[in-house]
Amino acid sequence: MRYRLLAVDLDHTLLRGLKGVSPGNREALARARAAGCRVVICTGRGRFSTLPVAEELELLDGPHLLFNGAAVFSTLRRAPEEVLLLEREAVERCLALADSAELGYSGFEDPRQGDAVRCAQPNEELRRWVEANPDRAAWVEGLGEVLARPLVAFLFWGTEAQVRELRDRLGDPSGVAPPRVATSKVLDSWVLELSAPGATKGVALSRLAGRLGVPREQVVAIGDAHPDICMIEYAGLGVAVGDGAPEVLAAADYVAPSCDDDAVAHVIERFILPGDGVA
């Protein structure tokens, strides 16, 4: 099988913490591109925090899927061409179901307007994130100011137990994509993320592959966490990194080594490079 599109998650898949891209992964990605395989970044990050990685890999020109598929960038040099925005009413319905006195809130504005993130109701988990992102995060007086502008994502911040309890409480709310639990292992912070219906990595990757004329059988997707499951299930070859979440490993066609052991390079060497692929 000749694979023509490689969709790669960033955090805990290509990147380990703040270490950046390893030399092995960087070289393998360059070789995959030279062999004619298009590399697409598929991440929950926004443009601001994806840019340094894309610059390091010489991948500023995409297409790339950010905000877990809610924004499609043909190039990270400019604003996105496609954005799925949340409806304020849908967020407010979720807030009404949340026992959120101890949770922090953040809203990521429409990325066509910039990279600002408005934050309210500070707790330890959200404070750590704001301190790590001083160039774009701003505290506001209350929730109303967070919701006042069009948002591509709304996040509840807390401990793992708080976030998972909220996910169970919300169930499958109307007007949003299935809420996603995610973590920043570097900051020891957990979030429950709300995005617009259809804003998933799997749906976005399917649309993108169709536009590029790449059948799903020729798509490889690599990830480690719950938001990656839908793209792993979509791809012709869905790969989980070895230290990923158990449900991700269960969904994958193939389990690669851990992130620390250059999982992305391993997959490229085994399945993508000419002469090294497996039929």
What does this structure look like?
With 279 residues, this protein is an alpha/beta fold. The chain has two domains: 152 residues, 3-Layer(aba) Sandwich (Rossmann fold); 107 residues, Hypothetical Protein, Haloacid Dehalogenase-like Hydrolase, Chain: A, domain 2 (2-Layer Sandwich). Helix content is 33%, strand content 23%. The chain is built from ten helices and 14 strands. α1 packs parallel to α10. The longest helix has 12 residues.
Concise structural overview:
With 279 residues, this protein is of the alpha/beta class. It is built from ten helices and 14 strands.
Describe the secondary-structure layout:
Elements: E1 5-8, H1 23-34, E2 38-41, H2 47-57, E3 61-66, E4 71-75, E5 82-83, H3 88-97, E6 104-109, E7 117-120, H4 124-132, E8 137-139, H5 143-147, E9 151-158, H6 160-170, E10 180-184, E11 189-194, H7 201-212, E12 219-223, H8 229-234, E13 237-240, H9 246-251, E14 254-255, H10 263-272
Parallel strand pairs: 1-2, 1-12, 7-8, 12-13, 13-14
Antiparallel strand pairs: 3-4, 4-5, 6-7, 6-9, 9-11, 10-11
Structural class: alpha/beta
Which parts are unreliable, with pLDDT below 50 for 5 consecutive residues or more?
Answer: none
CATH class of the largest domain: Alpha Beta
Largest sheet: 6 strands, mixed
Beta strands, count = 14
Shape: globular
How many individual domains? 2
What is the end-to-end distance?
5 Å
- SSE order, one letter for each helix or strand: EHEHEEEHEEHEHEHEEHEHEHEH
Query: What is the residue-averaged pLDDT?
Result: 93
At the fold tier of CATH, the topology name of the largest domain is Rossmann fold
Counting copies of identical and different chains, the oligomeric state is single chain
Neighbour order of strands in the largest sheet: 8-7-6-9-11-10
From the coordinates shown, what is the CATH architecture of the largest domain? 3-Layer(aba) Sandwich
